Amino acid sequence: MYIVFVLFWILLNGRFNVEILIFGLVISAVVYAFLCRFLDYSVRKDLCLLKSSGLLIWYMLVLLKEIVEANIQVLRFVYSPKYIPEPAICYFKTDLHSGFAKVLLANSITLTPGTITVSVNGDEFCVHALDTSLAEGIEEGGFVHILRKIEAMW
Predict the structure, then answer these.
(1) Do 58 and 109 belong to one domain?
(2) Helix crossing, 18-38 with 2-13: angle to 10°?
(3) Do residues 82 and 123 share a domain?
(4) 120-148 pLDDT, tens per residue?
């Protein structure tokens, strides 16, 4: 994260010289020290984030694929004159432990067209789906498998 702060500092300045680099190194060190001291951040968390970056990129690709597939399915529902959607509210429990993973799962479900996460209460999710077919397999989808791997790394 420290390197990201330094690069961001240089990028915001728009030019590069020794004074800007030295000042950026100092300011970035102060900001990083603040994060470590008051926001429960550490070098260990940086390393975990770096190790799991491949999984996070994979997660984003799976999310993008799911969004495209759900968009196509919702378009079929909307433009099919003979189709009458059957809205459904489904409840499911997850074995994810961290708040980060639960929030990421809830937001990913909401980002996918046709589904909205209504509530998360402990381990139980409540999801509204435009049609019952959109809610099938939501508790064991691709999102959950990747999030389990990310949690195992952390």
Answers:
(1) yes
(2) 140
(3) yes
(4) 998 899 999 988 888 887 777 778 888 88
Q: Which long-range contacts (CB under 8 A, 24 or more apart) does 115-123 make?
A: 115/70, 118/89, 123/93, 123/94, 123/95, 123/96
Residue range 11-50, pLDDT digits in tens: 888 888 898 889 989 999 998 888 888 887 777 777 777 7
State the residue range of the domain holding 22.
2-41
Secondary structure of residue 125 in the 3-state scheme:
strand
Kindly state whether residues 58 and 85 are assigned to the same domain: yes
Q: Which residues pair with 93 in a beta bridge?
A: 124
Give dist(CA 70, CA 64) in Å, integer: 10
Residues 62 and 133 placed together within one structural domain of the fold: yes
Model confidence pTM above 0.85: no
Report the domain count for the chain.
2
